[in-house]
Structures are given as structure tokens and as C-alpha cells.
Design goal:
single chain; 5-stranded antiparallel β-sheet; 3-stranded antiparallel β-sheet; alpha+beta; Ribosomal Protein S8, Chain: A, domain 1; Dna Ligase, domain 1; 115 residues
């Protein structure tokens, strides 16, 4: 197996759902939820291009912050990197991508952009 880097982060419901979305969209190789500690841990194997060794995630921008929340309606969702990127939206129906939120016609808090 090619070299890949493992990242460990403290778990939360939001981080678990974001990890699942990144896996479904092909941005990460694999992940594992561990419940060892009180809070739990997420282990993520990052994905790289086999030939060029360029990471699948080239940029991740946090949009909404505790001091400045950013909300958006489905009609206001913009394409991320001409459709190559993904926006993660926290809606009343759960955390989902911008495309899923637009399909279900729900707006919400824009968590981050991933390219």
C-alpha cells in the first residue's frame, strides 16, 4: 500500500459526520472512530495521488466561526471551484454537502469549503 498519513482528532458528532462526507466524496482514504477516551477519537488516513503525491484535499477553508456564524439559503449556494469543491452545510436535517442541501431545499450554517 502506498504511503499515507494518519491524522488523529478528538471526536464530536459534527466531526464524525464531516469525516463520513469526506470519505463518501473521495477526499480521504479511510477512517476509524475509536471510543477509547471519554470524548472519543477519529483516525483519518489522508488520500494522495499515487503518481504525483499531491493530497486529495488541497485546501480547506473554515467559513462559519463561533464569533461570526455564516448562514445561507439554498438559492444562495455558489459552486465551489467550478463544481470541483464541496461546501459542508449544517442544516436542520443534519450535516450535508451543499448539493444535498440544495436538492432537499434546506439552508443552514456554512461550516467549510473543501477543494
Amino acid at each position: 500500500m502506498a504511503n499515507h498519513r494518519i491524522v488523529e482528532i478528538p471526536a464530536s458528532k459534527l466531526k464524525k459526520r464531516i469525516t463520513e462526507i469526506l470519505y463518501d466524496k473521495g477526499y480521504i482514504l479511510k477512517y476509524k472512530f475509536e471510543e477509547d477516551t471519554k470524548q472519543g477519537l477519529i483516525k483519518i488516513a489522508l488520500k494522495y495521488d499515487p503518481q504525483t503525491k499531491i493530497p486529495a484535499i488541497t485546501d480547506l477553508q473554515r467559513i462559519s466561526r463561533p464569533g461570526l456564524r455564516q448562514y445561507s439559503k439554498p438559492a444562495d449556494f455558489k459552486r465551489i471551484k467550478n463544481g470541483l469543491g464541496v461546501a459542508i452545510i449544517s442544516t436542520s436535517k443534519g450535516v450535508m454537502t451543499d448539493k444535498e442541501a440544495k436538492t432537499q431545499n434546506v439552508g443552514g450554517e456554512v461550516v467549510c469549503f473543501i477543494y
